[in-house]
Amino acid sequence: MSFTNIDLVKKHILEHELGTTNTENVPCHLLGETPFQLPHKNILPNSEKVKGKEGNVPTQENISFSSGEEVSLSHPELIPDTVVVAKDSSLGKIFVENIDYSIDYDNGKITRIEDGSIPQGSEAVIWYLFFRIYAKDTDYRIDYDKGQITRVASGEIEDGQWVRVDYTVEFGLTNDEVIANALVETNDQILKIIDPTYSNSTDQSLVTAETYLAVSILCNIKALEVMTQNPDSSAKSLSLSWSNMSSAYRERAFDLLKNFKKDPGALRSPYAARSTK
To answer: Both 187 and 255 in a single domain?
Structure first.
């Protein structure tokens, strides 16, 4: 009997962000219709955002905090390090990010910091550049498995243009078949360790231990996968990171299993002793 299940293992992986990782602002040079190889493969479908700088002249807006501490700007997807906020258009008093205000770059929002220099209910002027978001299959095509992005000639991306890409990498740790195989191996290991009286137990410690051991196996699989799929200079350190994570989960699992081990004082089956005569 398995103590955990696929859903519990998957839930643990997702909640602890072991199965995916977010990558932002990867520069891509799109030439003709030649695929550009991203640094990662196995990209989570529809997680990508392909963007390019919309003009070189900053957008200027007059903003007011009279109705609240947060103001929505006319455009989302602001470009980092291009925002300037001042008391007025003369630029006589320039406010400082993360001291006087904070910026939500993705959603295009500015928030006044209460103990900063921007007075409550006051007005200010903001300048910024923003990204244009391109459309899949209209402006570009993407191969999620291979991690390749290709410009569509009839789209809005110019030949030779540099764009930036955000995406989520899916490590495959949440694949049901892979998890199921890990659970078979895990359950076999645990049943060899624990006392048979616990074989049908629903004790939460056993559930957690088997979940941790399954995650350990999956992390070890990922460590091997990194070395074979990414033969670059960073592969060794990344693989080591997954191996260390595997060891940590395995250690936590066996620490939980200590209270369920077979009694070492139990009688063993008799065996024949070899005669010395």
So the answer is: yes
Domain that residue 227 falls in = 6-19+172-260
The side-by-side arrangement of strands in the sheet containing 140-143 is 36-37, 148-151, 140-143
Same domain, 111 and 242: no
Same domain, 88 and 74: yes
Give CB contacts under 8 A, 24+ apart, made by 198-205: 198/260, 199/1, 200/1, 201/3, 201/260, 202/3, 203/260, 205/256, 205/259, 205/260
Give CA angle at 87 (68, 101), nearest 5°.
50
Per-residue pLDDT of the chain (277 residues), as tens digits, is 789 999 999 888 877 777 667 889 999 999 999 999 998 888 888 999 999 988 889 999 999 999 999 999 999 999 989 999 999 999 999 999 999 999 999 999 999 999 999 999 999 999 999 999 999 999 999 999 899 999 999 999 999 999 999 998 876 677 888 899 999 999 999 999 999 999 999 999 999 999 999 999 999 988 887 777 665 656 788 788 889 999 999 999 999 999 999 876 655 545 444 444 4
Looking only at the bridges linking them, the beta strands covering 70-72 and 59-64 are: unpaired
Q: Is the pTM of this model over 0.85?
A: no
Q: Are residues 154 and 66 in the same domain?
A: no
What whole-number distance in Å separates Cα of residue 28 and Cα of residue 66?
A: 41
Same-domain pairing of 191 and 256: yes
Contact status, residue 182 vs residue 173, Cβ threshold 8 Å:
no
